[in-house]
Amino acid sequence: AVPVVARALVNGVLTLTLNRPDKLNAANDALLLELTKALRDAERDADARVIVITGAGRGFCAGQDLGDVSGRSMGFAEHLEHTYNPLIRKIRGIEKPVITAVNGVAAGAGASLALSGDIRLWSSAATFIEVFSNIALVPDSGSTYFLPRLVGYHRAFELMSLAERVNAEDGLRLGLCEHVFPAETFAADVQAYAERLATRPVRALGLTKRALNKALSGTLDDALTYEAHLQQAAGTHAEHQEGLQAFREKRAPDFRNL
Ligand code: T3D
């Protein structure tokens, strides 16, 4: 059977491809649970230094598979806690960089997924829609957390109310992504970017991610204390020794296999 999430590990980059292209990779439970499992596996896999989440075909993820909801035994809250919420928590919690590589349309929970990455790379063919209000639902899977932090309350409310498609040019302008690459070379550009990130000290980046996530909801005083705590861990690790030694020897550091 074709996997709903395909895995490929190349040069330290683990690419997880949502694989229901005929439905623009709309998410059913199998896809969400498999993606979360793949991230858990990646957490323990030292060869996976950077994780890329992308979509097969012309879509990134069209959100909840609307053909999969009728007759469901779980309520909405229970369903979110069973599927989407563990996924989003894992993406933010895994101490490795996660790139969301948005190859096409990202809608509903797919838009939330697109925003959840540490680095967001978009194809010039990518579009983004906070589509929930079209079916009279509330934005979920982290959209109400991520989007106002990027664009402010008012623009977030407008995007959520009118459910208008944002194209790649506007996505970049609004800060919904870090870079836009041409659709024709998107996969290769994402791989090259991710390989560059994979040469960085991923353990230190994992701690950086932990510090940033905590700082987003705390005070400066809390952040200063937590930085000091994490610096103790980073500064006593082999990555730091290698960084220092490379600086002294005037060469590029090699952080792999540390
Ligand atoms: O616990 C819970 O259940 C609550 C959780 C909610 C989380 C959510 O994500 S709610 C939001 C759910 N998603 C949507 O409402 C999006 C619905 N889709 C669309 O609005 C549009 O398809 C898009 C804007 C995403 C893309 O438009 P377009 O014109 O590029 O493509 P299309 O022709 O509409 O779609 C192509 C095919 O994908 C089509 O199938 P067909 O006709 O070729 O057989 C379409 O039905 C299918 N598809 C698209 N989105 C979904 C989908 N099939 C199932 N579920 C989808 N979400």
From TrEMBL:
Keywords: Isomerase. SUPFAM superfamilies: ClpP/crotonase. The keyword Isomerase applies. Pfam families: ECH_1 (PF00378). It comes from the Bacteria. The keyword Isomerase applies. One of its GO terms (molecular function) is isomerase activity. Belongs to the enoyl-CoA hydratase/isomerase family. PANTHER family: EG:BACN32G11.4 PROTEIN, ENOYL-COA HYDRATASE. This is Enoyl-CoA hydratase/isomerase.
